């Protein structure tokens, strides 16, 4: 008999883990630790989520992410692939103003849809790439379930491209400014891990912001740094509210929110975009590493204050039609 105990693998219905596609699975996948597992399966380098339920033209993409090669668009479907979701993917592409990698996640990829992804990879410009991924959920001996991503379709040259790109990235240093941002977010990670109960470590990225969930798809808390402007900010950000309905609902309670927060906030409708934000800023030399411990504490205190002040209100915002009731296998 082997010294190592053996057991059986049990397949688990994904709907037991994520009953609602948008509110449960998309939100879960957008968390950094979970998203990195998908990024690793697809060989995306230093990828980070930018937005969930983000506007692309008149529609919304489940997840918008970005890595050192550019834009990543994720379409989730906790069911067998269907023509509706394929059509949504094509519609998203028409609304993009830059190349992208498009990832279609489902529980089962039908043969005709795998063939469609292959056709797109063969007949669209080389700076677009399409992936079909089957999501599986397993557990052993009744233990915690673990997701597995089976890549069913991808560009023919992807493996070769990944190898070449990996060598290129390993030999291409980040700029000094990018290194500064990445190191700063590492310090903030440590501050949040030590002091913010329930915080999950997020991969520091060489960019000007780090985003954190606030309990509802389409909304996030963001820590922002600017070397050029010598400034830092923390904000509540809504990605998709072109009518500003949610902004106006919160603005009605402006005095009460600012009283609870403890100081005035900057309320920005961002009229030229489908987004809006509520923000607080400070002046600081981001390149001065001796100031980082105090800056990380400032970020943490204000992220906590935004979460404490706005979490319940964000959950109660009525955006009209809102998200679809995603409980059927056709959602």
From TrEMBL:
It comes from the Bacteria. InterPro entries: DUF4268, tRNA_endonuc-like_dom_sf. One of its GO terms (molecular function) is nucleic acid binding. Residues 181-311 form the DUF4268 domain. This is Uncharacterized protein DUF4268.
């Amino acid at each position: 008999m082997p010294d190592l105990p053996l057991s059986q693998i049990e397949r688990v219905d994904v709907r037991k883990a994520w009953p609602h596609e948008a509110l449960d699975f998309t939100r879960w996948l957008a968390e950094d630790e979970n998203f990195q597992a998908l990024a690793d399966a697809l060989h995306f380098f230093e990828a980070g989520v930018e937005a969930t339920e983000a506007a692309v033209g008149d529609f919304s993409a489940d997840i918008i992410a970005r890595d050192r090669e550019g834009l990543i668009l994720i379409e989730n479907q906790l069911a067998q692939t269907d023509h509706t979701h394929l059509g949504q993917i094509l519609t998203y592409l028409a609304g993009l103003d830059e190349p992208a990698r498009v990832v279609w996640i489902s529980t089962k990829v039908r043969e005709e849809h795998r063939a469609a992804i292959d056709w797109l990879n063969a007949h669209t410009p080389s700076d677009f790439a399409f992936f079909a991924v089957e999501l599986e959920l397993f557990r052993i001996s009744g233990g915690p379930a673990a997701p597995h991503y089976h890549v069913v379709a991808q560009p023919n040259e992807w493996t070769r491209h990944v190898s070449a790109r990996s060598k290129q990235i390993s030999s291409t240093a980040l700029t000094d400014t990018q290194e500064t941002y990445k190191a700063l977010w590492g310090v903030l990670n440590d501050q949040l891990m030590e002091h913010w109960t329930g915080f999950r470590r997020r991969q520091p990225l060489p960019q000007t912001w780090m985003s954190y969930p606030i309990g509802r798809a389409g909304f996030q808390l963001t820590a922002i740094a600017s070397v050029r402007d010598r400034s830092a900010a923390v904000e509540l950000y809504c990605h998709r509210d072109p009518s500003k309905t949610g902004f106006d609902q919160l603005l009605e309670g402006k005095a009460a929110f600012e009283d609870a927060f403890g100081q005035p906030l900057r309320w920005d409708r961002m009229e030229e975009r489908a987004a809006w934000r509520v923000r607080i800023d400070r002046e600081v030399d981001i390149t001065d590493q001796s100031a980082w411990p105090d800056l990380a504490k400032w970020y943490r205190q204000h992220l906590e204050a935004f979460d404490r002040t706005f979490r319940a209100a964000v959950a109660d915002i009525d955006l009209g039609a809102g998200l679809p009731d995603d409980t059927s296998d056709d959602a």
